[in-house]
Amino acid sequence: MRSGTFLLFAILLAACPALVGAQSDADSVGVVETIEVKRADTEEPKHTSLKFLKDNRVFIRAQLDLLRVQTTRTRTEPAQVIDQRFLLLEQMSAAIAAARDTVSAESLLTAQRQLMTSVTQLGELEQQLSLVEGLLSEHRTRLLALEQDFLGHQETALVIVMKGFVGKPAPSAIVITEDSDVVRVELSPEQRASLAQGGIAQVYHEFVEPRAHVFSVGFEGEGWPVAAGISVTVDAARDRLTFLGLDLTRLDPSREAMGLLTDVWYR
Amino acid sequence: MRRTVLVLAALAAVTASATAGDSTPFSARAGVELARDAAQSWAPDAQLVYLENDERVGPDGSAVRWGYLFYSPAKGKARSYSVRDGKILEAADLGFDFESPPLTDEWIDSHAARVAAEAKAGQAYCREYQGHLAAMLLIRGAFHDKKPDATTWALVYESDTQPPLFVIVDASDGDVVRTLRG
């Protein structure tokens, strides 16, 4: 019996260095968190403090349970002028669409051409091929620009831009609310003047959860009556940049807040 | 031997009395910064959510000891600091959940709150029912039904013969917004 016990200890001791070594490896990689359960210290404080709160905690907590806390984050920096690259994206999209139309039209012409009857027509065909080649080259340039800007590091993010203030006073601030989260973005006089002349302002650029978001959009300022926010739904795509465009061209600040045009696109 | 015990007891009583008497009463706001410094070493995100007198409040709204309660959203805990004579006399975890919104920065001090409450109803209650001010506390949202965002003082008067009287004072402007019994 005794020799059996000794043998068991010997085996355990032989295994110990390996165990210790494994622990050291774990420590060198990161922090090992351990949990130990102890009984709470119930020592009474020497000086009674907050007696009323402790005596009436049920009543006071019941009052607090009736409350809802809303957090408002006011940006200390004014709204930023939109990044020129974002505007270029829209131009690129338009150019791609135009190029697609051109290629389609040229393909149609080629299909219709039954017979090459002269050297002149061969020359026209050569011109068309050169045109397609040029379009492909422009595509390559655009793709390269997009790749440099976005590919490989894009996280789910939302950008809100607004325009359409020509002929109406631009608001002094835009308030974007989602659930209890309120973001208030103030616009400087220069930015308001720029918007009134047809400019576009980026008012929001944040990482967001990849899900459908329902925002309430409201405006503050002279000529903008206090009205309930306008509800806008946008589905933020995972690992992509989602743009929400607010077009206020048809929104009349003197009437009920209706007619807000929205546009969503992804990059 | 018995005489010695009596003498020691008498000395202890005198010492305790002298200590209490030596303490200087101060207004609620005067102790906030000390308590805040302590709280922020406990939790950088700690916010003042509640305060209450820890000793009887004098006619000028001052007390020799005030208790300040801070809440840390990161820790999900509340911790109290009892301040007397410019020092933290006691610091302790609250021991129960109390997720109260942070007090607003602008609030009238305890003196102005007491003056407002006395003029409205407190003085009459004390005179009529031989009552006294038992507690005054500052909290946000709990007592102002119409303006739950407001930070309010609640002054609690007690009497041996009547239910207690609560006088609720808007801490932003000193207006008495509500009185209630019971």
How is the main sheet of chain A built?
5 strands, mixed
Radius of gyration of chain A: 33 Å
If you average the pLDDT of chain B, what whole number results?
Answer: 88
CATH class of the domain at 157-266 in chain A: Mainly Beta
Distance between the termini of chain A: 75 Å
Rounded to an integer in angstroms, the radius of gyration calculated over CA atoms of chain B is: 18 Å
| Sheet with the most strands: spatial strand order of chain A | 1-5-4-7-8
Assembly level: heterodimer
| Proper CATH architecture of the domain at 157-266 in chain A | Sandwich
Protein described:
The complex is a heterodimer of chains A (267) and B (182). Chain A is an alpha+beta fold. Chain A has helices spanning 2-29, 51-55, 57-65, 84-112, 119-149, 189-196; strands at residues 71-74, 80-81, 157-163, 173-178, 181-186, 201-207, 212-220, 230-235, 241-247, 261-266. Among the domains of chain A are: 83-149; 157-266, Immunoglobulin-like (Sandwich). Chain A has six helices and ten strands, in the order H-H-H-E-E-H-H-E-E-E-H-E-E-E-E-E. In chain A, helix 4 (84-112) packs antiparallel against helix 5 (119-149). The radius of gyration of chain A is 33 Å and the shape is elongated. By secondary structure, chain B is an alpha+beta fold. Chain B has helices at residues 2-22, 32-42, 110-129, and strands at 47-53, 65-72, 77-84, 87-93, 132-140, 151-158, 165-170, 176-181. Chain B has an eight-stranded antiparallel beta sheet, with helices on one face. Chain B is globular, with a radius of gyration of 18 Å. The chains are: A alpha+beta (267), B alpha+beta (182). Chain A binds chain B through residues 45-53, 57, 60-61, 63-64, 66-67, 69, and chain B through 50, 52, 54, 65, 67, 69, 80, 82, 89-90, 92, 94, 96-101, 134-135, 137, 139, 141-143, 148, 156.
